[in-house]
Design brief:
This protein is an alpha/beta fold and 380 residues long. The protein contains 18 helices and 8 strands. It is 52% helix and 7% strand.
Length: 380
Amino acid sequence: MAELNLKQIIDRLNAEFVGDTRKLVFWYDDKADFAEDLENVELENAKIYRLQPDNQFYTKYFLERVNTTTNYLVYAPFPKPDVRENHLEDTLLYSRRFFADRASLLSVDLGIEEKYKPILEKHIKFFADKKRTQRFYDLEIENFNEGNILTGLLSAICKARTCSFEEVVRIVLTESSLAENAYLQQFEQYDLLPSFWRLCEQHFGYTDVKPTLERLLVTLFVTYTARYVTKSYVQAELPAAWKSFVSYKAGNIIAFLDSLMNSVLYRDKYDELSDHVAKGLNVYQAFSGCRADDLVECDTFLAVDQVLVKWLMGRLLAEDTGAKLNELTIPEVCEKRAKMHFGRKTDKTYQLLQSAYCMVQAANYRSAEDFKAIVDRYLS
């Protein structure tokens, strides 16, 4: 017997025949799984007509000439014949078809085209749980295709409220660990892990022989950084070891990280991820050798501010109040950086540097050593 129990089948069949209008429902039971079960079944508002491979023409005559008022479930314990060999093909056009396997029932219920049914069949284990299945329904996906079916399955596993791959990645990266990620384990359980990595390539340009969340994360942050590290408004050279991580899908990546960075809900998690990548890439050391001008527009890492603060301190200690970065004066740089992402953590430092700038201008500080001691104490 098929995976759905007989009571479920009967309930669905009875639902097909509700109403006063005459209905014909065709059920091609490819493997005759329910042939014996239906021997003793009686439907509430219809009769069962057993179709045989050699009585199709008579069946057409019977349904359209002999009895034109009774509701019938036309049950065929064999696969539906090819169109050219099926005398009932035109009758099917104004009738309905019934499917008893879970994938087929889901296809009909959700309005998914027959050509996408193999996707449901491949991941049919996913639908074994009612709550998980309901989460998929609740996404209210329209115009099903392979991409949004797979994204919907991933979204349901992640308990996302919308069918969005970006939301799936956000949840994967922010709500579980990178090394032993609970969501990736569930993706693998339902044979969805290859689809997840394939969608990562489509959306973010990330591809790898052995893909990992760690390398995906580095790809996101390095690609974002490459866009905003500038040299006279022309992309500067990234460290050689970083270049292989730069993705051709920069636009999607920038939009994704911006959404994390600028979200009140997720900005702290962004900071954690940024710090994790910064430590792995040794960002502070890498950027210490860059021109400060190249870093003014970049706020991917807190290390950028640390490098800029060091440069600003150096200029002030040298009493170089005319120094500029990308045509910005020292106070303008401080004001700009304080308003950027890590300004929540660095604004007081930049305020101190602005005050120090005014002090240098007015020559009111006692000595360079005193000023440095004040700054060091404040930064600590």
